[in-house]
Amino acid sequence: MPLLGTVFAERERHPELLARFRERVAEPRRAPASALLERGMDRGDVRSDLDVEATVDHLVGAVFARHISGLPVAPGWAEQTVLTRWRGISC
């Protein structure tokens, strides 16, 4: 998280840092989640009208919100977060 704060703080003076962070860190981590959701759509497990990018945003946002809040990441937290979102995207 400290690296991300630095990248955001420097985005005006060094926009290439944010571009490189997106290219090397953010997108490679988002791509598998997007692919998984798209496979679920193809199989009929996930709603066909799902906004994949927004759903990935919600999952990533939950992680950031948990870390920023200082609340503990208890065992099973990630699974519960996905299950909570699953209720809204599954068929």
Write up what this structure looks like.
- The chain is about 75% helix and about 0% strand.
- With about 90 residues, the chain is mostly helical.
- Helix 2 crosses helix 3 and helix 3 packs antiparallel against helix 4.
- The longest helix has 29 residues.
- The mean pLDDT is about 90.
Give the secondary structure arrangement, pairings included.
Elements: H1 2-9, H2 15-43, H3 52-69, H4 77-89
Radius of gyration: 15 Å
Q: Provide the low-confidence segments as ranges.
A: none
User: How many helices?
Assistant: 4
Order of helices and strands: HHHH
Question: What characteristic shape results from the CA principal axes?
Answer: flat
Secondary-structure-derived class: mainly alpha
Beta content: under 5%
The main β sheet shows up as: none
| Arithmetic mean pLDDT | 91
Separation, N- and C-terminal Cα atoms: 35 Å
Helix content: over 70%
Number of strands: 0
Give a short overview.
With 91 residues, the protein is mainly α. The chain contains 4 helices and no strands.
